[in-house]
Amino acid sequence: MLDKAIKGSKLYWWWLFILFGAIGTGFLAYLYQFTHGLGETGMSRDISWGIYISQLTYLVGVAASGVMLVLPYYLHNHKAFGKITILGEFMAVGAVFMCLMFVLVDLGQPMRMFNLVLHPSPNSVLFWDAVVLNVYMGLNLVIGWMVLQCEKKGDVVPKWVKVLIYISIPWAFSIHTVTAFLYAGLPGRHFWLTAIMAARFLASAFAAGPAILLLIMLALRKASSFHVAWDTLKGLAKIITYAMIANVFFFLLEVFTAFYSGIPGHQETFYYLFTGLSHHGHWYGQLVPAMWVSLILMFTTIVLLVVPQWRNSEKVLPVTLVILVAATWIDKGLGLVIGGFIPNPLNEITEYAVTLPEILITIGVYGMGALVVTLLYKIAIGVREELENKPRIIGAAEHAAHGHAH
Amino acid sequence: MYDKGKVITGLAIFFLVFTFPFWSNIGKTAPMPERSLDTPVLQEMAREAGLDLEQALKEGAINCVEDKDYIVSQHMHLLNLWRDSVVRSGNRMYAGAFGKRHEMSLSKSCMNCHSNKKDFCDRCHNYMNVNPYCWDCHLTPEQMGTASDAEVKQ
Amino acid sequence: MSATRREFLKIAGIAAAAGAAATPAFASFIPGNILWPRGESKRDEAYTAKRWAMVIDLAKLDQKVVETVREACHAAHNVPDFLKVAGMGAGEAKRSEIKWIWPAKYESAFPNDMNEHMSANVTQRPVLVMCNHCDNPSCVRVCPTKATFQRADGLVLMDYHRCIGCRFCMAACPYGSRSFNWYDPRDAKDPKTLVGGRAVDPGFPTRTKGVVEKCNFCAERLARGEAPACVAACKNNEMVFGDLSDPESPARRLLRERYSVRRKPEMGTGPQVYYVI
Fold this sequence. Notes:
The complex is a heterotrimer of chains A (406), B (154) and C (277). With 154 residues, chain B is mostly helical.
């Protein structure tokens, strides 16, 4: 099936060319960071994790959200999702791959990475995060590949693959739960020290991840022969709506606890993010505009999603989803990690200013992830094309007609 | 659908490129350079034994912390053992093979006797193409102010 | 196997490397050495304890003392002073600063013990802050490689050989006691003799970029029977170091006689640096 990845249209090759450009630039930037030290990033003694770990956090969510395509199909027999589960699985592979790369570029001593394996430490959440992420990537790669191969040959999916599929469903929840535990178990970081962190992570993931998938499917409708029925997409939009509402609801719960209890430690980061903090006659509030934009956009998306005419409109929905992705990215990919470090344990404030090498490396890693997803999708679509030899609408109706039922 | 020939060629090229470091120096037969043991500390130890350095070495009057065969082939493991004992267990003294106690320290022990790093460790390592990263942190005899390379006759 | 490697093994006088004797035990069978007790041990003069702890007398601290103490510690451990490095701006130096012990404002060290109208004698004095060598250290809990660990005598230490630089410990420490080597601490201009503008002290290795570091209660000095560098630099018992399990240790005596506080004990970390007021 690999040969499918090396036959493509001009558009396909241009896209790959752009991705390789991004990866190459990122690689050069990484060499620069590697030789000069992580000082070339905007991180500091006080803000010791920055945009890399933020992206890890965001992308674990994207990876976990693949389950939102798999779960309705396998647990609720929601036939319409049958043909798109593979997109969720391959997206998960790309997203986890990016997560691992973001951890790698964030390490001070990447050559010693294997110490994680040589000196396994079950008391460390990071150890478990590495375990669950790697297993999840493997699961999705094997499942996606096997299902595709069976489809190609017209075989029935073997039992053991089905077992893996059922394992992968709770596993998706575990990766984002464990990632939330990275933060939620640390004493002295009040903003993160909250039992609802994992739930909030999952809610935002199940909104943002399917939104990205839906956008990709809309793009594929334009750029390839892969046509997903609008009805299927509408189903997905419903899931996004519920998840987004839960996400904002959880956020409001946090706000209530912090401000009704009046405990300063719990409020300070909220103040920093939404009003800015004054400290020794200096005002710090770099993230304030972005956080307000995010908050307003979140409420906007909820309105746009809840009203059926807008949710079901082929014109409005894509816009809504782009807004949603932006809003959740600011919230989780920026505010959550960086905000948690402010103020520092000595109640002092240092701000974070992202640097050019950091941005280039980040883009490079996204490029790598996009490359992985592109190649896998190309193969999947190629196999389908070969089977059909004509553009087709994938949806509930024809699924039954398609031979190899799961 | 697979083009076997191409796949095999690709794999072969991949294999050759990745094993380059291993086969590139086949046929390089330069002799192992001499390692000098002529340092002030070892000279002094020989003098105390009433011998000159060469004799003392020959008669085994002065020795390394371990048996020679062992130290040549396993000194990296010994250093790891020392490192873990000192850093993790808090033990700093080592009872050597020849009835002496040594402080387990790279800079203060090994490099005290072998203060001619350039003419000793480095010569062998350069020849063997190993480059220990220890000196990113640990101080060389030069930095400790105890280097004796200058005194070593070439 | 390459030619050079074979050559080497010939010189080494062993037929195959094959993991031959990874421990030097066999050497003890050299005739005449059988009775020699092999193995690793402490120095005879080493200071040992069941539970090391530090007591700091806040009433005795002033600007001069804290500066002396900080300099003594940082010089002894080759902690770079980036402010002294030419070409590094003040902002960058501060961002990548490495601190083992340093003066903080009272309100920063004890944010929950800040009352209005408190005596300036307390609030205006510098407080020396450092790693608390906690009983229940969150940094040790989160470390994915056991690079930071707790010794039986309570010391929370770093194994710089093992640290991968993930900085999880920095996020986990509620005291901000950990620093990361954002840059190579050795001076680019003269890496042989300078760490961050300071002359290298031959007594302790430097670190390298990409590892986390912090105060080690001077494990290397205790091992040779010396008090920690900060304590040794104090002229007037401003800092007292001792074994908390020994009721007669000076540290215990001071704790018995005076009112003491600790930083953020509510975190459950069990900090072992005490401040007497």
